[in-house]
Amino acid sequence: MGEELSTVFKALGHPTRREILDILKVSPRTTGELTDLFPDVTRYAIMKHLKILQEGNLVVVRREGKYKRNFLNAVPLQEMYNRWVGKYMQSTASSLLNLRKAVQEKGGNKNMESSKGFRIEQEIFIEAPREKVFTALTEQVEDWWEFRLAPKGVQSRFTFDPVPGGQFIEKWSEKEGAVWGNVYYVNAPEEIRLHGHLGMQGAVNSAYTYRLLEKEGGTLLQLSHTASGVIQEQWEEEHSKGWQYLLGTLLKNYVETI
């Protein structure tokens, strides 16, 4: 953990790299697009900054057709938060951040809807074999998945059948429950793809993919989540933070301790 955090601190240590992360938080960009946004910085320097950000696992690169796009990966930042803020300071920190956001927005409507979409790309390294991670993601999801759609105060159970046509389901009675995902592609233990609203409502098309790559000492879990349609403004941020917590904290801790 110490070495990983050192690379994160190094990546955050330059103002241009922090500005690149601010840009990628809004939307993914190609290297050329980022270069255009920094007229006083050479393309070579931007590429060097991106390499350092990738080494810190703060940026992940995905190919789209003939282009490669850079995506923000906020999981290492979540790990830093967990280490130094923790559950005892969480409510205080959140209250202060919410106050600052309210002042900055000056009464803006954060629930405003728009017809657009978002794409979340995250990577988490887990010190466990790929088969073990895949089983935890699917058949053992009941043991670590905390988010619930059940009515407040009602107990629910999860099942995940990792086969084509299988479902990731939460049930709180024989005839009541919710589908978190419908499986449409499986190549175990390397990849599984699902369609699922994940708590979003209305005219939304949402899909998410888990890819598991073998890496020395463990498994690199790659998440891709795309959504389009009538999207509320806060949903992208909520889902990004939700995935960071589910995969980067709950799943990682579960797999590495069993």
Automatic annotation (TrEMBL):
Q: Which SMART domains does this entry report, sorted A to Z? A: HTH_ARSR (SM00418)
Which GO terms of the molecular function aspect are on file?
DNA binding; DNA-binding transcription factor activity
Keyword Transferase listed? The answer is no
Could you tell me the keywords of this UniProt record? DNA-binding
- Keyword Signal listed: no
Tell me where in this chain the HTH arsR-type domain is found. 1-92
> Record's family?
Belongs to the AHA1 family.
What is the name of this protein?
Answer: ArsR family transcriptional regulator
Origin species, per record, is Mesobacillus campisalis
